[in-house]
Amino acid sequence: MIDLPINLNISKSNYYNIELKFYNLSLIKAIKIKKNYIVEEIKMGAFAWSPLRSLMKEAGAEIVSRAAVDKLMDYLEQYAKELTQAALDVAKHSGRKKITKGDMRIAIDLI
User: Fold this and answer.
1) What whole-number distance in Å separates Cα of residue 103 and Cα of residue 11?
2) Which of 46, 48, 63, 107 meets the CB 3.0–4.6 Å disulfide criterion with 87?
């Protein structure tokens, strides 16, 4: 559980009426557990979860856990960041700010 700057207003007449006020958070969720509410931030990744799961199934995995897809998503995000940084270094070395297809090819060969 993490502490977030939000207000949970739960009216006594309507127990399930929850008002969430967002303060520049990407997304939050409230989970009801034994009359207590736990608020946690949901990670918004760069890759969509469902297409990655489908890709894993196409590769032969019949049953895929959420944790496995999340781990693959984390790895791909980290790899994409490293690859982009390498391509940016190549572009800067060439005197440009814009990353081109050629820069990405060189970065892929380097990593």
Assistant:
1) 57
2) 107
**Number of domains observed in the structure of the chain:** 2
Residue 20 dihedral angles phi and psi, to the nearest 5°: -105, 125
Domain boundaries, position 36: 8-41
- Tokens 């060969």 -> residue: 109
48: CB partners within 8 A, 6+ apart: none
Neighbours of 40 (CB within 10 A): 12
Tokens standing for 100?
């081109």
85 domain-assigned: yes
pTM for the structure as a whole: 0.58
Six-digit token pair at 76? 């791909």
Place of tokens 């049953």: 63
